[in-house]
Amino acid sequence: MLHLLVIGASQGIGLETVKTALAAGHRVRAFARSAERISLSDENLERFTGNAVNASDIAAALEGVDAVVQALGVPVRDLLGPVRLFSDATNVLVPAMEKAGVRRLVAVTGFGAGDSREAMGTLQRLPFRLVFGRAYDDKDVQEMRIRKSDLDWTLVRPGILTNGAATDRFQVLDEPSSWRNGMIARADVAKFAVQQVEGGSYVRRAVVLVG
């Protein structure tokens, strides 16, 4: 049994990661500003209300955990303005983990972040940049900060996210020449994240996930 901290745990991939980790028998500290709204019931679940850019909240949340899954998201309405959540939260998390001696970090970003942007075709890249450009510029900074750390990190870049149950048929594209976009269930991304903290083979590597 591991003790996991999931940041961004109230919805999306974060919530699916909480569910997957609990189903696997792990203890989970579910960190979110609205953690009290998480409607799951499990003796191994701890709801932790906090702000991902608050250093005191993050330091407290790291106490006693073995690994961290960072699965932050921003509302669609915030994509039209400046986006700083991903980099600001990571600039708090990374030194806090180093200080606390928590080494394992699985960070969910997205296809199009970092060097995976080069794998996008021109027709896909233009509308992508128009809608998600500010967020992914910030994810670039997030990934760069993680890469510069001494942590045992994995960068997880899912393609187009869908709802529904895990399929277990997702593909892990670990070579830049194989990177491409594609659809994948949030539950499958969560399953991969939990597999990685359990003893994954992609430490200090970036991968693209598609269905």
Automatic annotation (TrEMBL):
Any one Pfam family here would be NAD_binding_10
Please state every residue range assigned to the domain named NAD(P)-binding.
8-197
Q: What is this protein called?
A: NAD(P)-binding domain-containing protein
The organism of origin for this protein:
Methylobacterium iners
Question: Which taxonomic lineage is given here?
Answer: Bacteria, Pseudomonadati, Pseudomonadota, Alphaproteobacteria, Hyphomicrobiales
